[in-house]
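Entry for the shared binder. Reason: the reviewer on the internal report wants the predicted structure included alongside the sequence.
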Amino acid sequence: MVTSPDKPAGRGMKMRPTPVKEWALQNNIPVWETGKADDALAERLREDASEVYVVVAFGIILPDNILNIPKYGIVNIHPSLLPKYRGPSPIRSAILNDDKDMGITIMKIDEKMDHGPIITQEKYTPEKWPPNALSVEEHLFARGGSLLADILPKYTEGAIIPTPQDDSKATYCKLFKKEDGHINLTDNPYTNLLKIHAYAQWPGTFFFTEDKKRVKIVSAHLSEDAEKLILDEVIPEGKNKMKYSDFLKVQS
């Protein structure tokens, strides 16, 4: 198994392994850590001699000398209905755009980002809209794993022939930054709600008080007439999570 190196995380910024590394170690599976798709990784993969690789959220464009190693290529699980939302943030971008046409794609990787031929796809309609990005992510990757286990034998046996994407319909999404989560509470209530749900956990959403204090938004909903955004819980700068109503009492 190949994964990214340990990274600092949490308030203490302690070094933490990726979830797949933790799982691999618990199951006595050898782990190779790297942040580069270099000759050392290529040589390691050649020694492994597997006929197909699966890549999920590795975050590195793989060169031809790696793509051409396995007999059946490298397969990827991508949480959108490609060619829509190629790039690093398809789920968050779909929610932000109020796009209910969601789903998962299993594709064969080529030299371009999220460009390779499609092995299979499955649509997904959240029960509630807008959904929290984290819940959609959890569902799609869990479903993607099951779907991959089902189709991978058929793919390697030649029963499934990957279909090229229609590049003319391709759309792209960006990697969000912390400042993207800044919300003006006087903006359209529904647009702000989409942001709060799309940016759950990262980059998060926040506003500033009159004295320039940052307040993180934890949860919110719309009024019955959908004309007002109602904040439920917030985390004021330097304080613990609290009800927004309690925050207003402190401010007054």
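Summary line for the report: The chain has two domains: 34-169, 178-251.
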